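Continuing the batch. This is chain 6 of the set; chains 1 through 5 are on the previous pages. Same settings as before, nothing changed between runs. Recording input and output for traceability.
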Amino acid sequence: MTAGGQTHHFQAHDLVLARTSQETFSFENSVGFSALEIHVPPLLIEQMDIEPLAGIHTRSLGGQDPVIKTARQLLGYLRKSSRSFFQTSKSEAFVGFGLAMTTLGYAFTQDKTGRAQLRQGNITGLETARQALLAHFDQAPKISELAAISGLSSTRFKELFRQQFGCAPYTLYQAHRMEHACHLLQRKNVTETAMELGYSNVSHFSASFQKHFGCTPSKWQRLAI
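Output for chain 6:
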């Protein structure tokens, strides 16, 4: 996203908090991009005594962060209760409201991890390694290979990767792998999806999918299609 003469790069599971204005901006996203966008009236912010924002703030969340789990669970409730998010009942709308408020609350929560700023060289190397990690979903690169790409030792790479992206390399890989599985399931059956993702055993794929989304791939298909 480019706004105010500055370019911002966002990753999967980022929470982005910004004050809207009349200035123009450009936004480029990947094919599989999806996001929840919440607009909050300035009056509500004032009533809650929240300090007004300046600029764009990003909070990186790992795949196991409580907000991700809670938001995913709430979204699952909406999917189960209605085949169309735009035709929910009043009671189901409360679940959607809960999804929005949970995400919004975490966005305003101060990030108290106190992480040190990484050097630009490390950030560039880690980003290159992240792209290599997510280039294919049928087989993940070895940690030693990713560390070499980033110019770090394996131990240091895992430490800085978690610091930069909020989770371990394979946790990020698996999260993106399961998101890609959802796209494949829209046009392929469960077995075909499992094979394309590198699983030699369909039951292993189903178990991974259920652990991530809380339902089996076949059930997800029935709800989504």
